[in-house]
Write a structure and sequence with these properties.
Layout lengths: L1 E7 L2 E9 L3 E8 L4 E4 L11 E4 L3 E6 L3 E9 L2 H34 L1
Antiparallel strand pairs: 1-2, 2-7, 3-6, 4-7, 5-6
Length: about 110
Amino acid sequence: EYSVNRINQTQYKVSVKGAKKPYFLILNTAFNSNWQVSFPDGSKLPIVQHIKVNGFANGWLIDRPGDYSLTIEYSPQRYFYLGGIVTITFLMLVGFYLIIIRHYEYKNSKN
C-alpha cells in the first residue's frame, strides 16, 4: 500500500506501508535522469535503478521492505531556487547601495 503527495511540479512525497518484495515505482512524467529518489536517512537510489518505463516515464526499482517514506525530486530545481535567492539578494544590495549614494549626494549638495 502506498500514497503519493505532490508537493509541486518537481517534488513528490511517497509513503509506503507493508512492502514485502521489490517493486517498481513509476512517475508518469517524461523520462529525465535528473529525477532522484531519496529516503529520510539521506540515502539515494543508485542511478542504475532509474529506468525508462513504457517508453517515456521515469521508473525506479525499489528493493526496501517495510514501512517508510521517500521523496522523488527533480534535482536541478535546487539550482533554480539558489539562483532566485542570489538574484533577490543582489537586487536588494544594489537598491540599498543606490539609496545610500543618493543620501550622501543629497547631503553633500546642501553643504
